[in-house]
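Sample 1 of the test manifest.
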Amino acid sequence: MKFEYKHLLRSMWAICWKDIKLYYAKGPIVVTGVLFPIFLWIAFYAGKSLGLKEGLASLMTLTLFFTASSVTPIIAPWETRQRTLEMLLSRPITVTTMLMGDILASTIFGLIFTMPPVVVGLFLGVLPSNILFTVFVVLLTALGFSSLGIIFSALPTDTPADAVLLSSSIKLPLIFVSGVLVPITQLPSWILPVTLISPLTYPTDFLRTQYMGSGFLPWWVDLVATIMFTFVFTIAALRLHKKTILIRLQRR
Amino acid sequence: MDAIEALDLHKRFGTVVAVEGVSFQIGEGEIFGFLGPNGAGKTTTIRMLTGILKPDRGKARIMGYDVNRSPVEAKMLVGVVPEEANPYPDLSAWDNLVLVGRLYGLSRSHIEEKASRLLRLLDLYEIRERKAKNLSKGLRQKLLVAMALINDPKVLFLDEPTGGLDVLSARKIRELILELKKSGITTFLTTHNVEEAGALCDRIAIIKAGHVVELGSPEELKIKAGAYTYVSVSFDRIEEGCDLSFLEPFEYKLQGSRLLIVCSRPADVIVETVEYARARGLKILDIKISPPTLEDVFVKVAKGE
């Protein structure tokens, strides 16, 4: 049993190392991960004379969302096309280990790029009220968004553009209804039910509570919802891939 | 203990039966050829044996480990070169080996030592920093073989390892397979090069439409399939229309002063032909025997003859 866990962790780390080398440590990905959320945030917050405190929660969630779920949708289709997937799966790893390695790499990527706004906030004296809880939720959110990206890649295709199209068509609406760019209290009341099913709503609201002292929902509701979304996304990602991996291999 | 056991393997994709009731046992150190026409079920069988596909029915075991119940333990003992697989194109040859070594849980020093040795063995050491996408097909294939050997496997699965390679690269891989046999490694080889299988393998199974239709040593298969030997006898002179009925029931043909016989017992036929020539004062200038090829057997089996 001890060997199994040790091997599982080593294999996950090997996959993570491969992903970072192949997909994340690339100029365009780094630039997109940094610039895209910042520009989107500026587009909504500029001119509203809001301080960093008001916008930090949104910027952190946006960065996590755009970084952690940006590359994962293309890994499986790309590796199917490159004919490296079967080579990988014939090694002593399971589909679950492979995906957990992908999720780990994506989570690390998301966390690294969320650091700059947090550090800037620290220097300016903008601190969350509970640092441990905040770190926990940021970590969970990165994990959840990485798994969400993996769900998109479960589409049994060898064309990365198919997964990206699916990913974009779901991700963008989720941002606009989640209260990331416009606070939930300012959204029209008819959109509220949709807001509550967006996985971005809860970490944003939680971080807002942490940085500003109050949010739309009680902090514990945000915490439980974030845990649930992360759990559901991770399980769904693993199950969907187990179902579609053979269809994917047969296509080659 | 058998190195590989396939026990009544079945696999169906929708309404298509890919593999039905495939069984065989392969001993340690054996080179086992798995031949069949396209779509016969070779790759599906390999995928079940290597734990990539779950059989609908039946069991696959590697060195006693059930591939489905203990996939990691079974795969730890195996090296695989899958059909038409690639190393990671954007990783260097060295990094590809490091990745695979890590997946087997090898230590850094072990990976470095083993990777250097394999790269040297396969003449890839000088280009170890080159990205796999910049390697020729032959070099990529050799890299895949090196990746399959990084963990010192007990069982090696090679799916078309020499397909599309130049003569030198293909020979290098064939020599390596024979070297590995000396170290006790079991090799499961699929190839479209029937003569290559005949030259390398201790035993061969031929699969057709999901069923193993022949199994045995190359020589046994030739005998079992009733493959014929071609005998050509050249005389100094021979009359056309002479009575050669002693050759029946075998097929024969007279081409000028050369007699061509297609038979299953060449020794008997040659003795009888020599006696015939002696009785008629004919001088035999040359006798040529062309043994049956495995390709003849394969064609017969593939055509269902």
